[in-house]
Description:
4 copies of one chain form a homotetramer.
Chain A: H1 9-24, E1 29-31, H2 37-47, E2 52-56, E3 70-73, H3 80-86, E4 91-94, H4 98-110, E5 115-118, E6 122-124, E7 135-136, H5 140-148
Parallel strand pairs in A: 1-2, 2-3, 4-5, 5-7
Helix pairs in contact in A: 1-2, 1-5, 3-4
Amino acid sequence: MCGPRDCTGAERDAAREVGRLLAERGAVVLCGGYTGVMAAVTEGARSAGGLVVGVLSRADREGAAPGLSAAIATGMGEARNAVLVASADAVIVIGGSWGTLSELALAVRRGDVPVVQLGGWQVLDERGEQLPGVTRAADAEEAVRLAVA
Amino acid sequence: MCGPRDCTGAERDAAREVGRLLAERGAVVLCGGYTGVMAAVTEGARSAGGLVVGVLSRADREGAAPGLSAAIATGMGEARNAVLVASADAVIVIGGSWGTLSELALAVRRGDVPVVQLGGWQVLDERGEQLPGVTRAADAEEAVRLAVA
Amino acid sequence: MCGPRDCTGAERDAAREVGRLLAERGAVVLCGGYTGVMAAVTEGARSAGGLVVGVLSRADREGAAPGLSAAIATGMGEARNAVLVASADAVIVIGGSWGTLSELALAVRRGDVPVVQLGGWQVLDERGEQLPGVTRAADAEEAVRLAVA
Amino acid sequence: MCGPRDCTGAERDAAREVGRLLAERGAVVLCGGYTGVMAAVTEGARSAGGLVVGVLSRADREGAAPGLSAAIATGMGEARNAVLVASADAVIVIGGSWGTLSELALAVRRGDVPVVQLGGWQVLDERGEQLPGVTRAADAEEAVRLAVA
């Protein structure tokens, strides 16, 4: 699950719901492990008894979301975005930021996992047209259904 | 310098020109080190006697562009995109691909280096509006001028 | 918990016991996630209901130990040794291999976590003398006591 | 070329000589890019007109050795040791430190490049015996000859 630190209340609610639904399906949730969308998905998954692993950019746990089942302090800075995306069976993106966009791009680049976007930024090619590779979901439930399918 | 393996002839020409101009200004050129835009920028920089370091995704040099002054075989897969971007004083992006987009996003995310785009994909926010952080150049010369400024 | 793929029966037993004892104390166990000592510590920790995260070198889960609670497929090759070591609150090393030695060295290099060794290789300085930084344990119980202290 | 920040005058001299000899043979020198042995090898290689790439642990160039032809600011902390070692055609280790030992171990772990040690620490197996994989050189000249062979 990818998403920005700075997010709207609606994005936070969607992330919490996505976390809860993933945990109910028995999925292990991976996220960046800090605030905003990351903390919300952690909260949601934990409320349903799920397992959440935070893949942190820092080499220590400063600022990590409370409630993470485990934290991997990669110490790799933003290169951890690639590690996070490489480790997932599906990627759900909520909201927009440049860090989040890098995760979306790296996920589509993989080519072998579903990439589902809930709100957030848009990417167009040089002619202003939509690019294949990302599926848009209308809400948390649809996002999880598309990701876990 | 970031850009895709698969590129148009015009993108290749622009990359060659960017490489040449950077070398003429005495800049060390960093790139992903493979084919397409990466090979073209290498060719251009070398033609002007410049230094080009390829930051490779693989742990060996298979497929590396001929002419690289040095190759760093990171063995990190796409996480090398973050290493490449972290090591630059300015980032010029030519053409579009998901890997290239991840580099563009990571570069803007840094917030402390010029990010210049020549052609390629567009990123819009949730309302369909342009986002700050990337400067568009009309041609190779303007791209280099904006990057090195 | 660090250790080689190729290990003796005694090392395997010690690793299983270390895993069990860590889980009983409520510790999350991090390991490299493959066979040998890594699989044994996973088995031990899981037998006591513990949580085990495998920090894999590969970008997929091929060859990962069965029973891992979660796997982080870093795709970074041996650079994952540094990630594993950076993420731990204490490092227990069982048995010897060059990969394991790199983890031992990186752990002492950190300077802020206990590094406990059970059997395995020895490192001497240029005069053939022991170096400070690693504590030797006689058995699994002592290793865990020293690590968790 | 791997070696510690804190080194003796003799190690510094040996590193300078190794750098010079590598440059004379046309080899590109890779090193960790900071002070001590790293700065000395850089100095030696540059004095002979050679190319030196520093693979830095930090995400910026603070503290980088003067004279580097190019710096790769990996921002990966000690995981850059693995990147450095993965990128070399041969590894020469001068002097001892835990970081240096991790590079020695990762280099032998690769199994496909010569690993040559000049002074520094010793690694023994559980029975106190020498391990294969590292060749000891008597001086800088022998080290370079064994590495480049």
